[in-house]
What does this fold into?
Amino acid sequence: MTTREECRALDEADVLAPFREDFILDDSLIYLDGNSLGPLSHSSQSRVRHALDVQWGEGLVRSWGSAGWMDQPQRLGDRVARLIGAGPGEVVVADTLTFLLAKLLGTALELRPDRSVIVTDHVNFHSDLYIAEGMARLSPRPVQVRAIDRDHLDDFLTEDVAVVMLTHVDFRTGEMLDLSGITRRVHNAGAIMIWDFAHSTGAVPLDATGADVDFAAGCTYKYVNAGPGGPGFAYVAPRWQSEIRNVLPGWLGHVAPFDFEDTFRPAPGVRQLVTSSPSVLALAALEGALDVWDRVDMNDVRRKSLALTDLFIELVEARLPGEFGLATPREHSRRGSQVALRHAEGYGMMQALAEVGVIGDFRDPDICRFGFAPLYVRFVDVFDAVERLVGVIERGEHRAERFRVRNAVT
Ligand SMILES: Cc1ncc(COP(=O)(O)O)c(C=O)c1O
It folds into this structure.
């Protein structure tokens, strides 16, 4: 079993170790929930302060032009593009993820007018399922949602399928799907592929261009570290840029917003997906987060992510044999950057663990989720987290009466 001294040595040799200094983190806390909400960086803090005090406080309305507020959706989109393997002009930052999925579903349905089915995964994140139903209801022609078992996707790729929408890394288990293989199979069936990159962006290297992805959307508050409720982003492949139509058009997707024309004339390309005014303060936080990401090599992130998740699985199985079921695939090619452990008393386990300074989270029915964000999680944190977990179980703290009733946020 890997020792604490060996973990220290791994940290000393780690090329990403200096990035921990970019974040404001309490050293007594082991934060393994960056798959839900990433921590505050110094650069986000100073970007937001500057946007508040100088751009808004002093510049007032003049800052829409002088501080570049108007250009934020594309300017920051170009920087997010690097994280997903896209090029400049292919990504915009706007809204939040669910709204962007709605827009992409709407345009995809219009691009396949003779087809009438949206295929998605029955264990997809619930917002994806709800918005697919909502967009089907809003469609001017009858559209049906088929929530299927993704392991049997090929059986459902029939001629009536207009669009397939899947989440690349499963929010519960952390299983990563085959981006290019699935996209190819969906294309062979004549359908359009929409990927949800919520748990992939900043977690695993992505190659939207190489995988021939049509459309994708993601959020920035998880591994990207842009703060609670941080903006979403949407990717549109170059071949679709002149074909898309925003089904929720607004003035900022107009080619000339300040002409105030009565008829919507879309801006070229992905910019037309912007509907309304940018959330300037949230975008300032994202800009700060991207100041960190601009210095990061995603291959380093992947190497360390796999080493951290391997180490966690190894230590849990060595120290607590038989206690948990492993919901996350062992194969590297099928693993994102989180480990999910199944336990019948999982909710109490995660609450008790938080009380001893290890933050993860719980997802129904029995999933204990641990996110390993390589920019700030150390090997020694993994070791200490497992030791604290052993302590919780030995002392029976997860069975405490106060954990019988669940909090609203788990
Ligand atoms: C996979 C996935 N899709 C969609 C969403 C919804 O994102 P938003 O609340 O930004 O719309 C989440 C949120 O955590 C998610 O994990």
